[in-house]
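Appendix B. One record, verbatim.
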Amino acid sequence: MIRKCLDDDFYTICEIINDAAQAYKGVIPPDRWHEPYMSRQQLQQEIDAGVGFWGWEEEGKLEGVMGIQDKGDVTLIRHAYVRSLRRNQGIGTKLLLFLESLTQNPLLIGTWADAIWAVSFYQKNGYRLVSTKEKNLLLKKYWSIPERQIETSVVLASAKWIT
C-alpha cells in the first residue's frame, strides 16, 4: 500500500535511498559519488526544503520511497528509490502514478544522464527528455544542485509540460 511517510520513517527513508543508490556506483561520474550517497543531514535538508515522501509498504515494511516537491508552477518528483531486492516489481511505477494524481501541475524529474535504467523507467511512464538547453535552465530554476551535477544530469517532463 502507498502511504505518506512520517517523521518516524526518516531513518528508513535514508536506508532505502542509500541501498538503492548503490546502483549508481561506478555509473555516475566518480566525482559525483560519495558514501553515503545521501547523508541524514542532506535528507533533512531536502525535507526542510519541502520534499514530501510517500512510500510503498508491505507487511509493515517500507520497500520504496518517492518524494514530491511543489515549486508553484511545476511539481518535481524527487529521490525515487526502491530497495535493491525489490526492484522491477512495479513499486516505482505505483508510487509514480500515485504522486502524479496529487498535482495538476506539469511534473519534472531530474536524474543522472548515465543512469540509463532510470531514464528508461520514466520514458516508459510517459515522460520525455527535454533539450540540453532547457535542462540547464530548469535545473538552475527549480533545483538547488551544483554546476557539476547539472552537467551530468537530464530532465524529463510529463506530457503537461509545454516548452
